[in-house]
Amino acid sequence: MLxxxxxxxxxxxxxxQLFNQIRFAIASRxxxxxxxxxxxRQLAMLTGLHRNTxxxxxxxxxxxxxxxxxxxxxIYVKSQGHEGGKRLSPILQEYPAANxxxxxxxxxxxxxxxxxxxIRELFxxxxxxxxxxxxxxxxxxxxxxxxxxxxxxxxLEQSLAIPVELVPLExxxxxxxxxxxxxxxxxxxxxxxxxxxxxxxxxxxxxxxVYDFQEELAIIKKIPKDSRLGIVxxxxxxxxxxxxxxxxxxxxxxxxxxxxxxDKQRLTSLVKAANxxxxxxxxxxxxxxxxLAAIEDLIRPPQLISSKDYIDEKSITFLKxxxxx
Length: 325
What we know:
Arc Repressor Mutant, subunit A; 4-stranded parallel β-sheet; elongated; alpha/beta; Rossmann fold; 325 residues; 50% helix
């Protein structure tokens, strides 16, 4: 924030001093088009002037066409000349800082000796590539752990509300040979194999971060000794990881049983034996049905806990931004 100097013992009114300093900041592009001016409260604290005086200065700047007031947002430097059309854009009114960012990006690229035509080509090529990549979205995982791909697929379809296709990693190269652009989503467990296939074809690959299961691990720490813990998932890989994590926490204190939800016989045995069952969100309703089906054989139904979505929330936010949804 610029520091404005106000001489209270000057013959020039304080309002005129502030007006001229702000006007110079705009003219010298210290305050560029789209820049949000300090609030009257902020400027009063910086200058010692009354907020009414600052409001009058802002009104004078607006009357002179240097700034404009956006209801509920603040006072912004107004574009001039060839810049004026851009300020009429609804998206720039919604995101006024975007204009400043665009200007700085252009200035930086021009300083690297790129022409405006070259910059335009770079931006359009990048935007076009991202749009085309977002049209086809694939999730991939190895055939021997396709369950984790199904889990990712369900999370993405619920969160992104766009078509997503699951492709076994072993078939990925054949699929990509038939397309010119796509986005492939996978976990960091498989990223090296996926990139080896995709990057040579200029296909975008986005690795996701998985949920850390800290809430579930906290529950496991409190389970009484000699309890029987059941873990159910679509993915055998998740089950293996879960067993290792539980063992690192509890050692031999509790008995751990696992089952893929598709293995009905093993699931039924687990339901009848476990005191507590932790399941992924996709498997949860099927485990509920298995408990109800076995209810007559149960002295006490197991406590059933559903974990959160497999994909970390930050990855979902990132994907929404990258895919434009």
